[in-house]
Amino acid sequence: MSDIGIQLINHACVLIEAGPVRLLTDPWLSGSAFNHGWELLAPTPVSIADLSFNYLWYSHEHPDHFAPAELLKIPVHARDGVTVLYQATVDGKVAEFCRSHGFKVLELEDDRRYELTDGIVVRCGQHRGSDSWLLIETPGGTILNLNDCYLPSVADAQALHARTGPIDVLLTQYSFANWIGNEGDDAYSRALANMYLRILANNLQVLAPRFTIPFASFTRFSSRENSHLNRFTNRVDQAVETIAANGSCPIALYVLDRWQLGDTSHDNTSAIAAWAAAARQPTSVCSEPPSVAQSDLDLAFERYVTRIAQKNDMAAIRTLSAAGCLPATRIHLTDLGRVAVLDICAGALAWDTDTQDFDIAMRSDSLSFLLRHEWGRGALQINGRFHANYATLRRFICQTQIAFMNNIGRSYPATIAETEVVNPSTFILRVVDRLHPVDA
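Above: the chain sequence. Below: its structure as tokens.
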């Protein structure tokens, strides 16, 4: 057994202890995330201020990983003793936020080795535009925090394995973390949930870790609009069975459980039972957010378009629209009983009372969140607080795609290709394409 300790704090947050290095990852320990869409499956009995660490790694910008409110709970006097590790990005906004609040920051270039102290090296790999993984090499073993990095094919896993080499410990999610179909499409939603277990199995066969810790899936959908998705969430016992069946030793941990790398006597029973009990508890944040007035949405849209104009070539966008490649999208606001017609080439939202004709249905606070934040479309895809018209949802995705990609520092047409707007590659469109084939 090595002297490397791994403690699950909650969800995707673990504390890795390796000699003088105490590395905390992705602390989201309280409150809701994704615009009132998620909550933690079990409460965290400690605050981030109670934890002792000198390095803090964020895998990506999603709020169940990079939670600014959590970060700012670290006392000001303790911040200069923490070095934040984050992937080098075009916009640098996460790194700048951390620096502005008194933290040291090390921006990790893709696939470059950084020695934190003698014999302890980290390497970060960027993945699919915004996610990243972290490889931690120590004298006592190698740990890969795969987190949300999506490796759907054997070839994807093989490409990663070629970069990482042998792995002693894998930390990985085991369930879906996004919308997987409208309420009522139970068979397909279950099939998609099962797909994540098959992906886990494929990854284990290729990466061949000695030990695997399932994590980053300890959440529930917490709104009346998305609670149906909780029925399909993969359980910890299913993850443990999949891990064991594919040649790795499963290590199931509950909140604040600690494991010593190499300990083969670990009993998963109590953690499995604790997570099962947590899943049976009712959600605590299912109340509906207040409605947003039509006038406020009009103003938010004007500002949304202004930001798009500042970050992109509007003449090029208008040319794309004139060619019929960027049709307006109809958004049924269920609490207002109206349809907002969104077209980024128009000067204002248009409004309609025909609520039978829509591409997507949501509450007004969801549209407001999307218009106020470039990451709002991403939050919506993940929180599942919507109902899709499978036949026409693509219009909504195309209309919001440019702002969505602006969020990671890209602009149209300089660094966003036309095909990425006209034919965007997103998980929810792949879901829709299976539920409603184009030739159907």
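The radius of gyration is 22 Å.
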